[in-house]
User: Fold these one by one.
Assistant:
Number 1:
Amino acid sequence: MTIKQIAVLGMPNTGKSTFFNRFTGANASIGNWPGMTVDLMMAKIKLGEEEAEVVDLPGIYDLRGFSEDEAVVRRFLESTPIHLVIIILNATQLDRQISLALQIKHLHLPSVLLLNMADEAPKFGVKIEPNRIAKHLGIPVLPISAKYGDGYDQAVKAIAQTLQQQQEAVTAGSLAQCSACDSKIASEMSSLLEDAVYTPEQVEENLTTRLDRILLHPVFGLPLFFAAMFLMFQIVYALGTPVQKFMGDTLDWFKGVALEPVLGGLPAFLKGFLIDGLYTGMGTVAAFIPVILLFFFCMAIVEDSGYLSRSAFLMDAFMERLGLDGRSFVMSLMGFGCNVPAIMGTRVMRSPGLRMLSMLVIPFSLCSARLNVFIFMTTALFSPHIAPVVLFSLYLFSFVAAILTAFLFRGRYPNKEPLVLELPPYRFPTIKQMWLRAWGEIRHFLKWSNRFIIFGVVAIWLLNNLPFGVPIASSQTLSGMIGQATQPLLAPIGINAQLAVALIFGFIAKEIVLGGLAVIYGKSQGADLMGTIAHQIDWVQAYSFMLFTLLYVPCLSTVAVLKSESKSWKFAVISVVWSIGLAWVASFIFYQSARALGF
């Protein structure tokens, strides 16, 4: 059976990825920021008797644009035979968006147009005649709400019928014809809007305008944003720490009642490898998954509500002085999940200088892997009241590092591209949307971490146990030798030999740091490991260690994507060398200052 190809195309902020998730059951990113959907998300589905592969293309404003995302869509349409294009437009903004559907019409591609957020149109005084739009375009046009599912069944039925009628795949060929039809498209757009769409000249005051007067206030806007972020960390700690403790206790219980009795008869070396190495290391990381899930559940509210776009607006004037813009700030916030997709998100920037400078600052974002380490260390060394403040201070340090980097390198990577920003209306996401967002991040975390954690914890365990005949994890082992060799460099910043080994492996992936500590100290996840570390180091050493972990070399995957996106090994090396140098200097200043003050 032939698998038919369906492309999902639309402008940013139209709910395209929300529809894709509902349509395919996949976990594409959902957000109110152009460039969230950077990769070509793909999923196979069955529509009636037809099997199809659905591709979620990056959100673009125009097929003739010059951003990397627009180039990706052009290359896809010009080279890929497809059976159907599903066009997603925002029903409340058809006067600005219908041109994209007209461009597809002139490419003679089989299409279905879905007018998403149709439930919001009456609130803005917008009136739409789908049947008249369909007559102008010559394709099925259906109003839907991808968020709540209104009109969804009828849309799927129309998609299935159109797909069944299209037996042969079609390639758009050269998109140069879009430019040749500019005057014709403009004329058709004017006629269509006059006949089928009514948009009021002035929008009445609503919840969005009232909230924006407060949240976008020139004086109080930024303090309110950072206060919201601080409140989020308080919630994550208050709810996440008990769940994390329960998870750790459950893993300890399973180890005691199942693993140790079953594996008790194995040789000591093999038993230690499986329990103290593999299980302890991976279990320590797994215990923090509920905290990460809760963190991204909260982030989904910030993103999908439309507040994230407001933060870009608030920060744009300040970022412009650093050679960046509001998009760079938002991509840095996206780096809270993982630096890799955030760096890829810079493709929406047309200016090469802006892209390079943004890619240089994004690795300082506190990703979910580093969040694991910091929650563990703050819980072990600080009281429950102080721990959220310490974690928030690390987020502030990440912004300071990004600002300093941008300030120093802005001359090397100049930017003159103006920021065009669309502020969507405030919408509270559904529970399903928040769950999909959080679960998608967890899946991404596990997908990347599993590639490295097993290798890392196994390698650290072997270093702790080799050569044979010496005390485990002593200075005579390979790990002890490595740790001692680093002391001339790391002792001045308060990092001992054991922490040094974890940091070295953290270059592969920050997920290894926590599992590595469990293996190095020979303690299972939870209170035992926390107590051991708390007796070996004080809070000054712990904070210096966290500061260094925050700023030093991003993981191997981030370095790889920096090279691929910049197309320059030199740029990747600059990023690595700068981050290591900044990490050491920042930790040195903090550690030595704290000791000089008597702490």
Number 2:
Amino acid sequence: MPSEREGVRMLDRRTGGSARAYELLEPLVQAATVRVHPAPGGYADRGNHPTWGSGFFVAPGWVLTCAHVVGEGGAAVRLVGREIGITFSSGPRTTGTVTGRVECVLPERLEERRPARHALWDLPDLALVRVLAPVSHACVRLTDRARPRLDEVAYFGCTEDLGIPEITGRTTRLRGTAAGGAALRLGDDDEIEPGMSGGPVVDLGRGEVVGVVKARRHTGGGGLAVSVVQLRTLPLDAAGQIGLYRRVMQAHDLYHYDEHLSDLDSRRTWTDVHGELPAADPYGGPRLTPAEITTLCGLLAELPPPGSSEAVRALVEAARGEEPDPALPAPLSWRDGLGMLHDPPGGTGEAAAMLRYATDISVADHREPPAPGADEELWDWVRATAERLWRPLRRELGERHDLGLAERERRRRARAGRPAHGPGRPAQAMPQGPSVLLEAWAHGWEDVYDWRVSVLAGPSHPGRLTPVGSGVRVTRAGLPEALRDSLAEAFRRCDTHEALAALEVAVAPELFGLPVDTWTVTGRVPLGVQRPVVLRYPAGSGGHAAGSPPPDPEAAHRRADRWSRVQTGPLLDERADCAHGRPRSPSPAWLDGLADNTVPVHCRAADQEPTLGSLHAVREAGYGVAVTRRPPADPGESCAPFHRGLREELTEAGHGAPLPVRLQALRARSHGADPDAYWSDGTALVWDDPARALPEDEPLQGDL
């Protein structure tokens, strides 16, 4: 343990290093920080606009700020599409003013539900603004790390100490995180002044922007900032599109890459300053230099974005030697994966992990052809960079590259005759990659539920389950709001450019009436319209629970046969809980005697008899595909149109594989007010795929 004198010397070195870092970074941050105010209007506008807050350029033409800043001056004004004014540095001691348009706010629900005046806005409280005129400006350097260090930082924003708006900075320490890492706690070393909201928070040790100033304490200094990693929660675009987050981050990395390569002026760039900062960890393993990191990020940005978050995580796992922390936000770009490779485990060098990752990307099958020579340029850079390290790594990377090329060629030959970058699943079939699993458990006779949201890896990694979020004792009415953020994060991890991942809802049959397909997570489109949503029996519901004797082999064989026959078709429908509109309870002998390609159909409430007993009996009889529905509000309404319409659907489908997607299309038609699809309202598909094993455990019930 250091002596008091040694401790003082260590503090002096830290403080001196931070002071030097602030001195180096201040001009770069000030040049990219802006003042946000009402939009300039007309020739009579004299520019005397009240300050709403601050923001900062994160990419050419893109400003990041807080949602409450762009919502200033009009609580009833719609945020997205609103035009605001942005005053920025356009050169030494000169400023310019331009109009910006709000393109997106986080969370999206702020459009419908604003907080009361002077109340904190919901996290993450971010807004992306697009500048509406071509202007020349500086951009900050954003961190690629999902978790910030609790160290010294500087925060910047617009102040009016002398009655003149100007961008100033203060220093403090990060004191911790809040809201699961979405918010950063700023120390009380100095005061956050009005107008600084929306400004950048910079890690002085690494020279990266890690947060956005959100709020100050009412008493004393300090306050809250929003982690910039929350940008990953930007709404994902439809399948086949790149998405706003990936476009902005691609532009961010290319900006700094171009700045680093340019020799048009001698001004310090962020990369130059990073090379002058005191070493954050002088005793760490080999690391890439700031210039190498900038170059690598630029080369990755020139490639097509990854097909899915899980594709990034798989490459990170291969480069790190272990599965990345499942609690980290979904990596949506190649640079996000790079940020998961800092400080790898087991003494593995950081530089080696990053070069392995880059090698694997250079031989990846991209969703669309990269620009000619882009993947070869990345590999050439990896090989040249490895020259300064050690011979065994150079040999390992060469072998890794050769094996990757051979595997890519094998996959391309296997796809011969099919579109090289076409859909990742057969037409009208469930996506075969990772899916989102929602589990819910009732508390006995209480009307409260425990829940868990996970990523189910599927056949590629049988049995792998990655938890995303969980909760306890939530009312049925409160489930949609309680689950919203976890579901959104899980979808970000699973969705690909080719298809949106399925949602598998594993609940007891009495909860089969839970209207999950009508919930909205992002935007205004219900889940059942966006993506396939299917019901599943929870693990162990077929008579086999964790720790119990294995199931009857004959029963397992019967379930496999019936699943296979339904997938082959043709499909036969059979009313299980009604006969000509009258309720009935099917006997086990009757169910056993049906053809293996039968789809049992239920038209009554799942939590009441005879339907509840029928759903259990259908599962016991080995039927992995069945249909149920939430009955209409009018108990006197005939179920005949439902059975008639469903029979037509099953006949047209021909076999089981298209059913989840056909039901999604039916929901879309009904949502679009197609009267010919109204019979399908409330229809749900039980889809108990034996190839997608569910976990056997249940969460502990009770308060945590």
